[in-house]
Amino acid sequence: MTVVLTALAPVVLLIALGYGLRRSGLAPDSGWPAVERLTYFVLFPALLVSRISAQGVPSGLAVAAAVTVITVLAVAALLLVLRPAFRRLTGPTYTALFQGGVRFNTYLSFAMAEGLLGPEALAPLAWLAAVMIVLINVLCVLAFARWGARKTAPTLGSLAKALGTNPLILACLAGGVLAALPPMLPAAIDDALALLGSAALPLGLLAVGAALRAPRQATELQPLVASSVVQFAVKPALALGLAAALAVPAPLQGVLLMLFCVPTATSAYILAQQLGGDGPATAAVITGQTLLALAVTPLLLATFLTV
Questions:
Q1: Helical packing angle, 122-147 and 106-116, nearest 10°
Q2: 15's torsion region: left (phi>0), alpha (psi -120 to 50) or beta?
Q3: Do the beta carbons of residue 48 and residue 175 sit within 8 Å?
Q4: Position 305 confidence tier, pLDDT thresholds 50, 70, 90
Q5: Nearest by Cα to 306 from 242, 262, 248, 240
Q6: Pick the CATH number of 2-304 from 3.90.25, 1.10.150, 3.30.1310, 1.20.1530
Q7: Residue 25 Rama label (left phi>0; alpha psi -120 to 50; beta)
């Protein structure tokens, strides 16, 4: 437990600093969208290309990817089946619960993996995260088409375009191509990618803290509680159970845990605003899960990493 807390302490401190910077006005609300775009479109892709091109595709990744897909699909199916049990929630509000149950915070996953498993865990984590990003975005768009307030659902073409231009997916592919080829990038470019990538996680965690908002209505608590049970209990238990049953190598089991014991992504709020979801309820889920993760995630990691 001490090792876990020591590794996660910098993560917690950076999240708290991001929240404090926004609340103090030193880094006001207007500046954070630019930080998020820079991290998402430049710094984080640089980190992925740098790590994957250096490490390539690890052994056992295909089985770990299968576990990832099965877990996400099973959770999405569970949330679909449970919809009648939450009949008092409007469709848009239920999308907050859905996103809270299936999405994951990429920055927290990578920061925890680097602190607890070492830099060598980032390449397999990047590959599995890319698989999840594709699947989760498809599922969430379908959920908004079913329960969102908008009358027109996104087309398959627009969805394919969004996935095909996703910088994280493109970075994983670029890193994989570079890993498969003989060394071809000048040392200066490799060093530049490494330097850019080193800034991705600190800025990403600051942005996570800046995005924290307090719930405004009691009705926002139900999606938060239900999605948190799925996020912090159902998903990690299912993923690790499948990983053990399918004999996923132990190092990759640790990587899987980093994907399935973190709160939902802050990008869930943006998608809710764009596709007719409940923005305030989604913000409450993001904030509540992030704060809950500060207490729950260390316990999960301490339990599973020592088994």
A1: 160
A2: alpha
A3: yes
A4: low
A5: 240
A6: 1.20.1530
A7: left
**263 vs 267, residue with greater confidence:** 263
Percent of the residues in the chain that have a pLDDT greater than 70, as a whole number? 93
**What pLDDT is recorded for position 1?**
63
Cβ count within 10 A of residue 44: 25
Measured at the alpha carbon of residue 184, what is the angle toward residues 178 and 186, in degrees to the nearest 5? 115
Query: Tokens standing for 83?
Result: 């919809």
For the record, the structure tokens of 297 come out as 């995630």
pLDDT for 87 equals 87
Domain borders along the chain are 2-304
